[in-house]
Amino acid sequence: MREDEVLSTDGTRIRTWSTESAGPPVLLCPGLGTVPESWPGLLLPDCGVRVHSWYHRGTMGSARPADPARVALDDHVADALAVLDATGVERCVVLGWSVGVMVGAELALRHPDRVTGLMLAAGTPGDFYAGVGGPFGLPTGLRRELARGGTQALRLAGPLLDLVTHRFPVNGLTMTLLRHSGFMLPGSTSEAVVAMMRRFRAHDWRWYFTLAAALAAEPAQDLSGLRCPVTLLSGRYDVLADAATSASALAALPQARMRVLPTTHFLPLEAPEVVREELSLLLDRVATVRRWHPLTPDSRQRT
């Protein structure tokens, strides 16, 4: 894996990362503040794809924008395009996780010539708060307000969270406890979780939840115009992205494939083999579409 830097359209310096595996390119729209170690199945030399991704604004070496308000969905889509342009990728399959689902979906809607297929993992296309707490069975409106208030409270508590998490021991024992907490399940390995959490815990949490609040404020996206192959992977025990809420956004897409897994929000860590399997199937579907419709690579229906 190698890292580099690109400039987004507003001049913000974005830190990128790419794998060097052989295979077709895939753009990964990451979960908020997440790191490559969150995707153990895609870091293997024989994973079959070459992954390109980036770190969100103000995290993991990417600069904060000069205008602190430039952290809306538009800005993250611009960062995604900057990664594609810098790596010389004209079009490819796009994979999104968590809030990256919003970014990937918006990229396909606005720039259909760049997206040949879409995999959405453990996330909702817009209206993020509506998907929080689904397994608890509370009304959507109540869940939305609780999630919004919780995000603001965590943003205000950022300095306290910094004091705790930056000193929290990350080792096999503590990560085993995390993997059995219910927020995460033991389908992930201790080694993978340790590798991820050693970097993830170092965030500036006030900035992290500033990013979260900006993206979560985006309304639900209308995906009915997409025509590229779409795959949705949801976790049955995901408390941040309810499977039913995610599925409803894809109900109008006859070409969409959905799979619900016995995982939490950390689906890439808990089911890396399934991610690779479904990504391979999606690439096959994309190849079939291109074979039968060689002149129509767009991801959105023409009007």
UniProtKB/TrEMBL annotation:
Domain of life: Bacteria
InterPro entries: AB_hydrolase, AB_hydrolase_1, AB_hydrolase_fold
AB hydrolase-1 domain boundaries: 24-272
Pfam families: Abhydrolase_1
Protein name per its UniProtKB record: Pimeloyl-ACP methyl ester carboxylesterase
Species of origin: Kutzneria viridogrisea
